[in-house]
Amino acid sequence: MELILAIVIAVLTGTGIYLMLRARTFPVVLGLTLFTYAVNLFLFAMGRLHYNAPPVINMSDTHTDPLPQALVLTAIVIGFAMTAFVVVLALRARADLGNDHVDGIDIAEPEPAETQAQEEANS
Amino acid sequence: MTLLAIVFLPILAAWLPLVSDRLGRTACTVLTLIAPVVVVWLALSHLPMVLNGELTTVSYNWMPSLGLNLAFRVDALSLMFALLIAGIGILVIWYARFYLSKGDNLGKLYSMLLMFMTAMLGIVLSNNILLLVVFWELTSLTSFLLIGYWQNDSEARKGARMALAVTGGGGLALMAGMILIGQVVGSFNLSEVLAAHSLITQHALYPVILVLVLLGVFTKSAQFPFHFWLPHAMAAPTPVSAYLHSATMVKAGIFLLARLFPALGGTDLWIILVTLTGLTTMTYGAAMAMFKHDLKGLLAYSTVSHLGLITMLFGISTDLAVLAAVFHIMNHAAFKASLFMVAGAVDHGTGTRNLRILKGMHKFMPLTALLSVLGAAAMAGVPFFNGFLSKEMMLTASIGVDVFGGFAWLIPLVATIAATFSVFYSVRFAHNTFFGGKAKKTPIFPPHAPSKLMMAPVILLISICVAVGLFAQPLVGNYVNLAATAVLGFEQSPYTIHIWHGVNTPLLMSALALAGGVLVYQFRAKLFTWYNNQPDFNELHIFEGLTQWFAGHANAFTNGLENGSLQRYIALIVMLFGFMLVLALAPLEHLTGDITMTKPDLIASVSSFILVFAALTTVFVHHNRFGALIIVSVVGLMVAILFARFSAPDLALTQLSVEAVTVVLLMLALYFLPKARLNESNAPRVIRDIIIATVAAVGVGILVFAILTRPMTTIAGYYLENAKLLGGGYNVVNVILVDFRGFDTFGEITVLAIAGLGIANMLRNLYLPLPLTDNEGRAWSTEPHPTLVSVMARILLPLALMVSVYIFLRGHNAPGGGFIAGLITSVALILQYVASGVGFVHERMNFNYPRWLAAGILVAGVTGMGSWVFGYPFLTSTFQYITLPIIGTFEVSSALPFDVGVYLTVVATTLLILAYVGKLTTTERVDG
Q1: Cis peptide before B474 (omega within 30 of 0)
Q2: Which of B617, B741, B779, B853 is the most exposed place for a label (fewest CB within 10 A)?
């Protein structure tokens, strides 16, 4: 099982990083999400893998390490907040710069203002 | 306490001149003088102790863990310097009152002078070598300001910059040296360092320490080849030059040489390095001074030369040499400060300092002429002046330095030559300016004599020169001996200063130098012609060129690395991370560790397979944004299942609810972002990214596998055992969150709140074009809120809320708690937004989310502070069992209100984010 989990984390890392290297904001957000999963699973796995041993005292006889779990729990929530922050940043950039390129400069589109007008015309 | 006052009084009074500037120059001067006068008075109160040979020290803790304390000491050496600094400071402040023209800001100059005074006093009185470095750097900074006083003058700015670069750079070397000394000795206390001579000098690092410390000393005291900043610092107003570049700042290096003499001095390496540097500087400075046609330039190089002389004496290291050095420090301060003031007076009265224009000025300023002849005589070392006495002692000390063996005769020879040069420029200073024929036309003509008040400090200083020259032994003999003792660190046989030692070698050398100097002066015209034919050489140009070169290359490097592309930054960061990972994994001998592996489990294996498949699919279909989003949510669900399977019910619940919220958020984002595009990246870029991602993935995979198959030690035992006992709960994860590590959680919900507020701010006045169709050009449904969905959602709401209350309450003992309950509540409310629209929800419950968010933090914070009332640290929790009839026994814990705070923050933040982003889709936008 350790091997499987290692592969899972590896794949999440790889796909996350690949998407984070894309030029448009939406794939970057997706990549960030995948990478967050990878990091959370990684931290969680540091407590090792145990079946049926939740760290709740009256629920089972053996208990897994509660510390990484406490760490990851808040990490998940904060991870959401940070994803949301990036999403809104992307929206703001889209509004202010007129494109969704991570560098704010769109080579493919000639003029930001023109693009916006074009898009509205298309829609 | 008086020591603290001596050091810090000037800087504490630095605001006085700034404020009192408008009251008039005299009032400003008087107020400025208060601090240095008090300092002199306080310093003199220590004189009786010092004369008794007592050492006074004080120490106040500053950063004891670093060994940095506010420790000060007074002995003969530091008291001598303190009196010089404060005393000459008083004279300079007085003089500047008359020197500065009406247009210049007197208050600013005074304020900076006072700050500089504190820095200097700090250096000489420190009893902690780190503290000394702090003050050392302060002198570099304040002198930078003082040299650049006329900030509109480009020469002043360049000169200031150069001085800062050279002395500040030397200061860094000094700091390194001091830290090494501290490491070797085991203490930064100066008294202990001074007692550790053999420990330091026999240490393997001694040469490194010595060179580092000497770099600091030589840059500060303008020793060759670091002398070049000093002449360029002459762009400062003359009072500043008189103060910094004769009596104080440049003497800081000399002071340090003397101060650390017992710890570092006396070794062969010391003698060779210090003596030769001093000798070279003395000769070179004197030679350069001969050819300067600027009065201040002449004095600047003469200062370089005299600093070299003192340095050489400390290098020679004999009792007599040290005594001569100490004596010359005093003498030089007296005559050089007065000569600078004379140069300023001439400049003031004639409008020029150029020696090719100036001549015959004695007619216009007879008093100044007289004073300058006397001062120059002291500088040249004419008998019956103080300069003569210390120069005689210097020449005596220069004979027979053993370390140089067969070449020892070179030192007195070169010293005599330097003395000859010194006579030459001294004669030139006085003769060329005030005599030498009829006055030529100067910029201010006829020149006006400086006022008597302006010359008062000069008169005082020259009187001292003459008095010490005539009655050295009764006036200062005892004190010089004491100061030399303080430098040497042991009591030497007392030396009596005599004017007449009979006819001996030093006297002959002295006479030779005097005669030679005057003789060469007769042929000065030829000498200047020869010098003019030499190639021009200006250190400033070289220095500025070097600076430009470095700045240019640094800029080019930065611009090359930082081209503004986020993609490149992320790639670089990931590559560095991958590189470090490879580096860390390289020493791994075998991949698999010792512990037996867990058996694969069906559910976990299947979900892992789906997860891997989904993650890879996301990458392949990411151009289809909507599809990619759906698949990512599958990944999230599988992660939740893995959490559940591996005994983390809390995490599974959290992941599940966060997943729901995230998908809604990303759907909203998708609504606004431009449509999907075909692959934009070119093939090489894609291949590069695949390689980067693969390397990182393989590295992380190996890392995880290697860690998971190796045993671990954990501190979990403590938490598992004490969760019930101390925290009163069975769910250890929750107890850790709200109790053991409550402070961390408090920080985390604060981060959450800040993210939420940041988002609210970014959304303010944000207008995005509302697309009228979806990506395939289909119009939106005309029925935005289907009845079935909205009715179902409404039925679900109370149910969901009840579940969240249940999850919240049981959190302490079973999976659940504030975070999860908060997320469930959020999901239930978001469902209402989705099903019935923003308008519908806001008609019924119009919460001000930022306010609720603040309330959440407040509840958590106040709960934490509650424990203060009972005298416990922040966030100490307590719990109690209460038995009520019918309901039975239950637990009341202070962790509960804290968890309420967590709950409120999570709900408010999540809803704030989604509701605000959601509102963008309607005409009701967030404005203001």
Answers
A1: no
A2: B779
> How many beta-carbon pairs under 8 angstroms link A with B?
313
Check CB contact of A61 with chain B, cutoff 8 Å.
Answer: no
Q: How many residues does chain B have?
A: 928
Q: Are B399 and B507 in contact (CB under 8 A)?
A: no
State whether B716 and A47 contact (CB < 8 Å): yes
With a CB-CB cutoff of 8 Å, which residues 470-489 of chain B face chain A? none
B581-616 pLDDT, tens digit each: 888 888 888 888 788 888 888 889 999 999 999 999
Among residues B124, B222, B125, B240, which one has the least CA distance to residue B170?
Answer: B222
Q: Each residue of B187-237: pLDDT tens digit?
A: 899 999 998 888 998 999 999 999 999 999 999 998 988 888 888 888 889
Terminal-to-terminal C-alpha distance of chain B:
56
Task: Report d(CA B594, CA A30) in Å as an integer.
Answer: 37
Q: Which amino acid is at B595?
A: I
SS (H, E, C) B329-360: HHHHHHHHHHHHHHHHHHHHHHCCCECCCCCC
The parent domain of residue A40 ranges over: 2-122
3-state helix, strand, coil in chain B (%, to 5): 75, 5, 25
Strand partners for B881: B891
CA atoms of B287 and B424, how far apart (whole Å): 9
pLDDT band at A112 (very low <50, low <70, confident <90, very high): very low
Burial class of residue B844 in the structure, from the number of CB atoms within 10 Å of its CB (0-12 exposed, 13-18 middle, 19+ buried): exposed
Interchain pair B646, A44: CB under 8 A: yes
DSSP B889: E
Task: Give the integer Cα–Cα distance in Å for B923 and B39.
Answer: 72
| Chain B residues touching A98 at Cβ < 8 A | none
Residue with tokens 């005409």: B923
Mutation choice for A interface testing from B732, B743, B910 by most A CBs within 10 A: B732
Q: What is the CATH number of the domain that holds A92?
A: 1.10.287.3510
Q: Does the pLDDT value for residue B177 go beyond 70? A: yes
Least confident of A60-74, B220-234, B630-644, B710-724: B710-724
Q: Is B614 on the interface with A (CB under 8 A)?
A: no
Beta-strand relationship, B56-63 and B879-884: unpaired
Q: What is the dihedral of CA B519, B521, B526, B531, to 10 degrees?
A: 120
**Other beta carbons less than 10 A from residue B797's beta carbon:** 16
Tell me the sheet residues that pair with B72.
B58, B126
Q: Where are the domains of chain B?
A: 267-522, 740-928
Q: Which residues of B397-429 are buried (b: 16+ CB within 10 A; e: fewer)?
A: bbbebebeeeeeeebbebbbbbbbbbbbbbbbb
Span B616-630, average pLDDT = 88
Distance CA B505, CA B460 (A): 33
Q: How many domains does chain A have?
A: 1
What's the rounded Cα separation, in Å, for the pair B477 and B740?
71
Q: Which residues contact B252 (CB under 8 A, 6 or more apart)?
A: B120, B123, B124, B136, B139, B220, B221
